Amino acid sequence: MVIGILKDIKAGEYRVILTPSEVKTLVQDGNEVLLERDAGLKAGFENEEYEKAGANIVATMEDIYNRADLVCKVKEFEEIEYGLLKEGQILFTCIHPAAHPEEVDALLEKKVIAFTAEDSHRYGSPNCEAAGKIGAFFGLESLLSINGGKGKFVSGLTTAPGVQALIIGCGMVGKNALQVLHTMGAWVTVMDINLAALREVERLYDGKVNTQISSKANIEKMLPKVDLVINCVKWPKENKEYMITRQMVKSMSKGSVIVDISNDYGVIETFHETHFDNPRYVEEGVVHYCVSNIPSAIAQSTSIAYAASVLPHIRSLAKDGVNKACIKDGFLRRSLTSYKGYLTHEETSAIQNKPWVKPERVLSIENEDLDPAPRATSTRSKNFIKEEDLKI
Q: Which end of the chain has the lower number of beta carbons within 10 A, N or C?
């Protein structure tokens, strides 16, 4: 198979989906690997390293789309890429389809086979680990006086108390933010609706981290007391109620900081997405840090970890083909977003009111011995494509 690695063009994106190490493995498997020139440069990987690993360097993204059977990148497809997509081409990237209707329309119109990488991780995405850790650093940086914060040092000084932090959400992102903040001496409270996750925190940190059930009432009570809030909640997109309202933000002391790692509209009323060139803004006296691709700030580390995690999927797609790969791995199967003009992503169907078909149905593998996987989100859709409209 011809595998193409694109240079990501999203604003502030420095990661690359595969490093020379993974390229060498794919070449040894018998694949031809094309790399868009300088795709790995901002993550610290020279073109020459890829060439030594067996990749062929090509000049433009057009070259990749024209020649590759399987196209890989880190972030969403930009509008200038839509016209380059080819029918039947396999795509693997973080599409975030539910939040990007125009992107989904392009995938369906071009009849590509698209996998959204963020739903494909059996053991959690390295991007989540990176987002939690570096997001905590950006929160502490935002507290500095020079960045509009109240000027508090994380562990405090003699006679001057340290930072009081609140982490909302105790998944992989929240746990990694906690690791950094606790290690650096912050006083941390973690909130989640999962009692088992909170018990694990109590056990791991020997009771030195406060835990609470995440509820609007508890958050409202905590906000006036904390210096730093890190939101790590994956918010159900159909939920129309804010977790943190503008009035709740207003209750925080001036110069406090909110880092919204989840970056979902509808969670924090004062949220809007930012980029690295202008990452902060102030609403109601509170500094907001809302960069959408935080892991890109540590591009080399994240690229190495992420490439290792997605390589098995890419190898399987190249060796086994789409159908067999989706039989063997339920997490890859659930990440199938579009297949030759059909929407196959349930959350996107529900949010965008588009009819969908289950991946195993459109792939005609319902009767196979399928590797099981939980659904990617709690969002459900019964808006199915009619059987008579399926031409498979």
A: C
